Give the backbone structure.
Amino acid sequence: MRRHASLIFFLAALTGFARAQSADEIIDKHIAAVGGRAALQKLTTRHSTGTATITVQGMDLSGPFESFAKAPNKSRVLLKFDTTALGGPGEMVIDQRFDGANGIAMNSMQGDTPITGNQLENMRNNAFPSSMLNYKEKGLTPQLLPREKAGDKELIVVQFTPKVGSAVRVYFDPATYLIAKTVTKVSSAEMGDYEQTVVFSDYRTVDGVKVAFQTVNTTPSQVVNVKIAKIEHNVALDDAMFMKK
């Protein structure tokens, strides 16, 4: 009887310990899962190429995709779509740039739009290669939230709250500690307040670091499905390419 009671207590203690993981411990496990702190710190730039399909009001446009990232937080995304299939005038080029402080969205058909307000704050909170490497120094406060069901899994949820800008909920796969998705509340003058969800899949190892080769970015107005074909790290990227022309 005593042995049975001791076994129950031991199993209960193990269960309680498993549930008592802190947000900091989850972050450490994630960093180890993607390749480790040393491997991430070796990355200074990333150049990705592939294809993107944007779905707007039930219609699809597909074309080449290209993205650039440079430490600590510079980014650029370049998309090209042929609009003739939908009755458009031809090629549409979308070029979004962020130089670490200021951002601009350039559209060959709609003109240039400065990125301001909440959207700009959120871009400033991003970091390459991962905002989790130095989240404390960046002023991000992590909070472990209750797990959420997704299919046959209960995903681990950690919310990161910055000093300025939107909080981001990060959903980790408990089997791998890789990021399954993120959810961010965004505020814009055009659309008001809405949630942006990004789902990550098809992780592959490049230069010792696991990277998602497919992302699906969903907002109330559109869905963008990106499939990466090639990733290069530590290529030379001039700072000027992240600035407005």
Confidence is low (pLDDT under 50) at residues 9-19. The CA atoms of residues 121 and 164 lie 7 Å apart. The radius of gyration is 20 Å.
